[in-house]
Amino acid sequence: MVTDLCDWLHLRWYHTHDSRRSPGGFPDLVIVGPAQVVYVELKSEKGRVTPAQKEWIDALCGALQDAYIWRPSDWPEAQRVLTMLAKGTL
Fold first, then answer.
1. In order of start, what are the domains of the chain with their CATH numbers?
2. pLDDT score of 47
C-alpha cells in the first residue's frame, strides 16, 4: 500500500529486493519528494525492530533526516507524511 500511494503521488521510491549482500538494518524504503527524502522501515503489527534497524533509524534521525518505522496501524500517519512529502511541505 505504501508504494502504491507513492506511485499515485508521483513520489520516487527505492526498495532493495535482495539485501543479503548488504549490511543489515538499512530501512526498507527510500522515498524521494520534490524537496526532501524520507526513509521507512516497514513492519507487521507484531514485527520486531532489530538492533541494526534501530541503529540506522537513530543515525538517520540524528543526521536530521526523516526516518520512520511504520506498521499497518500507522497507515493514517503514512498517508499524511507521504502527502506532505509530495507537496514539498514536510
1. 2-87 (3.40.1350.10)
2. 97
Q: Is the pTM for the entire model greater than 0.90?
A: yes
Which tens digit of pLDDT belongs to each residue from 18-46? 888 888 999 999 999 999 999 999 999 99
Nearest CA among 23, 14, 31 for reference residue 66: 31
Q: How far apart are the C-alpha atoms of 50 and 56, rounded to whole Å?
A: 10
Amino acid identity at 51 = P
Question: Could you tell me which residues come within 8 angstroms of residue 49 by beta carbon, excluding any fewer than 6 positions away?
Answer: 41, 43, 57, 69
The answer to whether the beta carbons of residues 81 and 90 sit under 8 Å apart is yes
